[in-house]
Amino acid sequence: MFAIAIGAAAVAPGAASSAPALPAGCEQLAGDAGVRCVYTEGSHTLALPAGIRTVEATAIGAAGGNIVDDRHPHLGGRGAQVTANLNLPSSARTLHVIVGSPGHDTSGWNNQIPGQGGSNGGGDGGRSNTFDANPAGAGGGGASDIRTTAGDLSSRLFVAAGGGGATPSRCGDGGDAGAPGSANEPDLTPSAGQPGTPTTGGAGGANDPDHSEPGWDGSPGRLGHGGAGATAYAGGAGGGGGLYGGGGGSVQCAGGGGSSLVPTSGVLDLAERGTAPRITITYRTRTPQSCTSSLCFGS
């Protein structure tokens, strides 16, 4: 018996169809729900099948570093969670998926070693330059993004920002993505880092005018990167990464969260505390060819 092909190459009765191999980190979902790819911390690439112009994506940015100190524990800011349907440029056959890491914790008082910023844009915490109990700041969390060109921040399609780092005292908790570091006490002049915006990095925390020498203010955020914390007397915390990074905290003050890039169809929220940064991408391929005993129907 000969097979009859309609809109597809003939397949002999009983012959098994060979599906293309899935990219690393991806799985075929049941029915026609498509292919789901899940990525954790680090840099990854996703080569899409021909004809894929739209993907569904969820990205979670990393949290800022915590202060793990029994006397003055404080929490880093939460990363953003962004969900959207992405319409891809016609030339985008490969997506570069970058998942940031959390800012590094510090142990608080009697610790002069600052927390490093998380990968993909987290700002470094500031080092204490004194020899007493003054603490160093924690690092800001890195962002998670999808881009069309490796290493090119301008090609990002989608960004979930990271949270700002914490410090042990004064304005202690780091700013959530899109928010400043926690407010300082009213009678204290040093201030927390400010959040990144859609067009510019967050301002660094400012100290009082009597301390205008270098090291007393936090560094401002910039495109893709959070600012570093202050390094004079006692360290400030780093800002979170993002579309634009959050500002670093002034002396003993927390970092601001970064800003996110949300497509028109997207939804912006904050990740639940303790959620690991990641990116999930789902795409739907064309309907696979199906065969009866004598007929094959292509997509």
UniProtKB/TrEMBL annotation:
<keyword id="KW-0472">Membrane</keyword>
<keyword id="KW-1133">Transmembrane helix</keyword>
<keyword id="KW-0732">Signal</keyword>
<feature type="region of interest" description="Disordered">
    <location>
        <begin position="161"/>
        <end position="224"/>
    </location>
</feature>
<keyword id="KW-1015">Disulfide bond</keyword>
<feature type="compositionally biased region" description="Low complexity">
    <location>
        <begin position="189"/>
        <end position="198"/>
    </location>
</feature>
<dbReference type="GO" id="GO:0005524">
    <property type="term" value="F:ATP binding"/>
</dbReference>
<dbReference type="GO" id="GO:0004714">
    <property type="term" value="F:transmembrane receptor protein tyrosine kinase activity"/>
</dbReference>
<dbReference type="InterPro" id="IPR055163">
    <property type="entry name" value="ALK/LTK-like_GRD"/>
</dbReference>
<dbReference type="Pfam" id="PF12810">
    <property type="entry name" value="ALK_LTK_GRD"/>
</dbReference>
<feature type="compositionally biased region" description="Gly residues">
    <location>
        <begin position="161"/>
        <end position="178"/>
    </location>
</feature>
<keyword id="KW-0418">Kinase</keyword>
<keyword id="KW-0067">ATP-binding</keyword>
<keyword id="KW-0812">Transmembrane</keyword>
<feature type="domain" description="ALK/LTK-like glycine-rich">
    <location>
        <begin position="49"/>
        <end position="265"/>
    </location>
</feature>
<dbReference type="GO" id="GO:0005886">
    <property type="term" value="C:plasma membrane"/>
</dbReference>
<feature type="compositionally biased region" description="Gly residues">
    <location>
        <begin position="115"/>
        <end position="126"/>
    </location>
</feature>
<keyword id="KW-1003">Cell membrane</keyword>
<keyword id="KW-0547">Nucleotide-binding</keyword>
<keyword id="KW-0325">Glycoprotein</keyword>
<keyword id="KW-0675">Receptor</keyword>
<keyword id="KW-0808">Transferase</keyword>
<keyword id="KW-0829">Tyrosine-protein kinase</keyword>
<feature type="region of interest" description="Disordered">
    <location>
        <begin position="101"/>
        <end position="148"/>
    </location>
</feature>
<protein>
    <recommendedName>
        <fullName>receptor protein-tyrosine kinase</fullName>
        <ecNumber>2.7.10.1</ecNumber>
    </recommendedName>
</protein>
